[in-house]
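Here's what a typical entry looks like (Type II secretion system protein H):
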Amino acid sequence: MAQTDWGRIGLFMKQFALMKKNRGFTLIELIVVMVVVVILATVAVPNFTRIIQENRMTADANELITLLNAARSEAVRLGGQVTANLTSEEEGWSGQILVQDEVYRQLVRNTAAVDLDGDHSIAFFADGSVPQDFSIVLSPSLCNGSIRSRVVSVAPTGRVSVTAQDCEQ
């Protein structure tokens, strides 16, 4: 039979007990981690804010495109003229689809972060066309260069498209 070396086992148990007591972080390690977290937050928060503002611009442009496409579709479906009226509001903008001077559909965007470049009235004919090119500019309220404006264009054929451009300060 092999003999057990109790001295070695005792030494191992003492070392294990010391390791168990020293679990945790030092104050220096905690401070270093906090400094890294603060640096990452100062970089991430402005980018996150920019992403939110870009998403608002995209959402408003998509709402405007939907409204114009609905007006065009109604003109083709009804076989007559349908008008889309867009109005710049104090905070945001609104749009209406008028069929024979009656409101068919209404949209109100209360987004203080997005401005419409004025009031517009676009008439769609029975074939879905419009009398001339139209361009509507959606701009961020605070134009700081990092967020781009959206230009919603309506071609004479009635096709609606959107492009991004640098905003004018």
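Helices lie at 6-21, 27-78.

More examples are in the samples folder.
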